[in-house]
Amino acid sequence: MVVNGGFQKLFHKGIRYERLFLLNFTEISTEYGYKSEEHTVITEDGYVLTLFRIPRGKNCHFTVRRTPVLIMHGLLLSSDSWIYSGPEAGLAYLISDDCYDLWAGNVRGNYCSRNHTRMNPDVDPEFWKFSLNEVCVYDLPAIIDYILEYTRSVKLNYIGYSQSGGSFVIMCSERSGYCGKVSVAILLHPAAKMTNVKSQAFRIITKACEILEPNIQNALEYEALPRGGYIQKMMHDICQNDFIADKICRSILTMLDSYNPGSISVSTIRALTGHFPAGTSFRVMAWFSQVLNKEEFQNFDYGPVMNMKIYGRKQPTTYNCNATTAPVVIIHGENDNIVSKKDVEWLKGQLPNVLEVVYVKNPLWNHFDVPYSQHTREMLYPKIGEYLFKYSGHGAE
After folding, report:
1. Catalytic residue among 98, 336, 343, 369
2. Taking the chain, what is the end-to-end CA distance rounded to the nearest angstrom?
3. At a CB cut-off of 8 Å and minimum separation 6, what does 303 contact?
4. Where do the catalytic residues lie (predicted)?
5. I want to staple 164 with a disulfide (CB 3.0 to 4.6 A). Which of 72, 75, 217, 284 is the partner?
């Protein structure tokens, strides 16, 4: 158990919180003694994405396994979310310490992938005119291709949390060849069809974005909940006091999701507010509002007129979940108010190759516990480790 959280340990080493909030994945992991790398990927449509890699964990004392592991973040998060809770609980550390070549990706629009070969995100509204479909059609394939080419591997293992769990299913539907490049997909609380979301805060936020999105003109207005924006700055400022972080800021997380007392340490709450929310486009947020109210798991709905121009039909195209032929493991918590058990069971019934659906043994395990809990090692990682081992090469190339 990590009583004081990973960031608290660094603070005791003389590294101030104020400095930690300025550090990225590579810099934070280096502070913990993990050697990491930063890589750049350019998508077919010109978006510049940042990947981070820990090629070998600090506590890996054996040969690194052949099959690389790609872990992808959730909505409004970044690769940094996998290291906030420190080496005892952060999934990036746990996986790399288990002798896997760990890659943490970022999709377009968050602060790690806010760049383009031709467009300026501060000036060009077109930069922000993407929904989740573009993330799945362009970003994930580009990331997968880059990792396989760089490591000279045939396949990789995929771990997708929340948005990135659903994104894997969409990628397999729209770019089916990439499903064959994944040995096993471990989907953590996957956000696909979401008609049974319990979080009223999530519904209100995404609905507001859906209402506002068609009327936005300015490039910066298209960017939803960015790091450095008013909301993130306010959260960061008020959550730096331990008492406020524990009482008020924890209550905000509970309002968005549900209550799991003691799961996320105060130091982790203080740390995550320096990087969350991480930004995305209004259109991505609007798409999530749409899937809350649609019986079909479908592409972005532009309205009948634009749908005819884009899809050749009045309704958006639906995603073919049956195209997800890669072996899939789903891990979920029953206290998740953002991705419900009913929606997970629906997804299970749509996918053709589900190996197992696992519910975390802690009945209070919720959505935000996946990246931030101090109990990840015992609650989440054993099953992840089991399937990574089963679907990985067990030696150097």
Report:
1. 336
2. 35
3. none
4. 162 (nucleophile), 336 (charge relay system), 367 (charge relay system)
5. 72
Size (the chain), residues: 397
**pLDDT reported for residue 21:** 60
pLDDT of residue 19: 53
Are the CB atoms for 134 and 108 separated by under 8 Å? yes
Supply the pLDDT for residue 3: 36
Of 137, 135, 146, 6, nearest to 74 by C-alpha is 135
Helix or strand (DSSP H, E) at 141: helix 140-151
Which residue bears the tokens 């959505």? 367
- Catalytic residue (choose from 236, 332, 367, 375): 367
| Active-site annotation holder among 78, 162, 281, 340 | 162
pLDDT at residue 13 in the model: 41
- Retrieve residue 36's tokens: 């990491």
Q: Is residue 367 flagged as an active site residue?
A: yes
**Residue 318 DSSP code:** B
CA torsion through residues 204, 205, 210, 213, sign:
positive
160 DSSP assignment = E
Known catalytic residue at 258 = no
Burial (CB count <10 Å: 0-12, 13-18, 19+), residue 112: buried
At 312-364, the pLDDT tens digits run 999 999 999 999 999 999 999 999 999 999 999 999 999 999 999 999 999 99
45 catalytic residue (yes or no): no
Smallest Cα–Cα separation from 100: which of 143, 78, 142, 71? 71
The DSSP result for 44-95, as a single string, is TT-BEEEEEEESS-TT--SPPPSS-EEEE--TT--GGGGTTT-TTT-HHHHH
